Amino acid sequence: MSNAEAPRQIHTTAPSLSWPAPHVERLQENLWRAIGLSSWTARLILVLVLPLLGAHAVGQPFYSLGLVEGSWELGMGIAAIGSVLVAFALWLAMLWRPGQLRFSDRVTPVVRGTIKNRAWRATCVAVVSVLSACGTDTAPQTADVEFVPPRDTDILLADIEWSTEGPRIGTPTNLTQRGDYDNQPHFVPDGSGLWYTANDPQNGQSDIWRYDFASGMVARVTASAPESEYSATPLPDGSGISTIRVEADSMQRLWRFDEDGSNAEVLMPELAPVGYHTWADENTLVMFVLGRPATLQRGDVRTGQAEVVAENIGRSIWTIPGTQDVSFMQQDEDREFAIMRLPFGGGAPELIIQGVPGAQYHAWAPDGTLFTASGHLVYARIPEIGSVWQTVGDFMDLHLTFSRLAVSPDGSQIALVAELAVLENFPGN
Known about the structure:
Elements: H1 22-35, H2 40-65, H3 72-95, H4 109-134, E1 154-163, E2 166-169, E3 173-174, E4 182-187, E5 193-200, E6 205-212, E7 218-220, E8 228-234, E9 240-246, E10 252-258, E11 265-266, E12 274-279, E13 284-289, E14 295-300, E15 305-311, E16 313-319, E17 326-331, E18 337-342, E19 350-354, E20 362-364, E21 370-374, E22 377-381, E23 390-394, E24 400-407, E25 413-420
Antiparallel strand pairs: 1-2, 1-3, 1-25, 4-5, 5-6, 6-7, 8-9, 9-10, 10-11, 12-13, 13-14, 14-15, 16-17, 17-18, 18-19, 20-21, 21-22, 22-23, 24-25
Helix pairs in contact: 2-3, 2-4, 3-4
């Protein structure tokens, strides 16, 4: 075949392919510029400050409002996960920079060293970010928890710290945190929680609720609209609680319920209106009965009969630990209260101690220490000292005023009903 007949070879240059395309590369570069991570200072602020704020925003308010079932552990878990995601995003942003790492580039030793250096720095900053969030302590009932002030009458819980000098009341925690009536706390016999009365502002219904310390959860015990229940007290046989029920006709009588609120039964149908009560033994009740004047009456559930044993009494009645005697508060001519003892075996009431001015409630610790409160102060009368009140808690800085109180069966905690004090010269007063 001659050269003339040979097919001509056409030499062409194939277009070069690259990734990313020029317009994509420009878009990518503009995108990274928009991220705004222009300096180590900006990155350090982002990875340190934002996770800390996120941990606080997720952990503490979620625990306070109960949006994660009252679990600070779950709130901190959410905060930690969010911090990990933020740290990972920043790790990628610091590692992946335009002009130094593209799919079409050949990774040279210099570029490889730059990548490794960035990866090491980004990993360190990510670890610091996670640790900063996880190190935010939002556990309940510690000194690091910000105190949530009461919005109306709320129930506070505080530890009682005992020493040779007597008890001291620790920093309280607000258990209820609602803008309505939460009152009348009474510890359950094993100390694992407390009963209290809560009012529903939607319908004016008041029921008994139970707060569980281990879970931080609350559960409704009674739900008997249109009747309302108050002043939950454990039954002597351990089968449930006795309460004051405001019946549909507004009459107040003494009722009993099982622990789950079932099997309601009136105890002394002929005695009304009853306001408060305590048990001296399985059959004997001592009750505050409304009237002018209010009277202290001792009744027998077997017969349904009651007798008046004192007049001009207050609303605080307790069985004295280790005895079957009952303590109550009685008002004198000067409208000041004294704490009195009603002997179980009969006889006239006896003076225990003159009350603190302004105090209308008292409670007993199992060792016989007597507590009371007035204004922002909590007092105790220690058996070894005698008829002397000691200040064991001062909460003026929290602007609180206390009313009812109760002490746990083991004497380690105190529940206090508190509301915000009226502040002098405050415009809202």
